[in-house]
Amino acid sequence: MIDKACFVSQQEIAEHFNVNRTTIRAWTKQGMPYLNADRGKSGGYHIGHTLFWYSGKSHLQTIGYHVETSALEKIMFARLLSSERDEYSSEETEHRFDEGLQIYGYSPEDVSKARNKMAGFLAGWRHAVSVRRASMEQSADTEQ
User: Fold this and answer.
1) What's the burial of 142, exposed, middle or buried (CB within 10 Å: 0-12/13-18/19+)?
2) Which residues constitute the domain of residue 131?
């Protein structure tokens, strides 16, 4: 489980991402993970989780995927892309990452479902891209 001390304020997360607090409020309304306040203290944002959420959201928009996705699915999409390029990524690392998301109230099953859904989507999307490329190459060869 992640220590709550790893969470920063709205102002700090805005500064980290070089945006203003209005943008952070808008992102929060769009589903960006946020740890609710307790006992009068301000809530917080985890820089890593925010980065994965934003990255997943951006990647999905870039590829034109306009189907509704949860915050957890956006995080998992970015995490899957990231872990493919990370030579130090391991099953244990991924398990710890998944456990860290439980601080927001996600169950292990929620996390697993989101990871599996986005892994399936990613595999399907890559297959579609490869079929499209092969088709385009075949068309180019036929024209010559």
Assistant:
1) exposed
2) 4-143
Q: 114 and 72 in contact (C-beta within 8 Å)?
A: yes
Number of H helices, E strands in the chain: 6, 2
Structural domains counted in the chain: 1
Q: Write the pLDDT tens digit of every residue in 57-85.
A: 999 999 988 889 999 999 999 999 998 88
Total-model pTM: 0.83
- The two tokens of residue 36 are 């609710």
Report pLDDT for 130.
85
Q: Strands of 1-144 (E only): list them.
A: 7-8, 45-46
Name the token pair of 44: 């917080």
Residue 38 has pLDDT above 90, yes or no: no
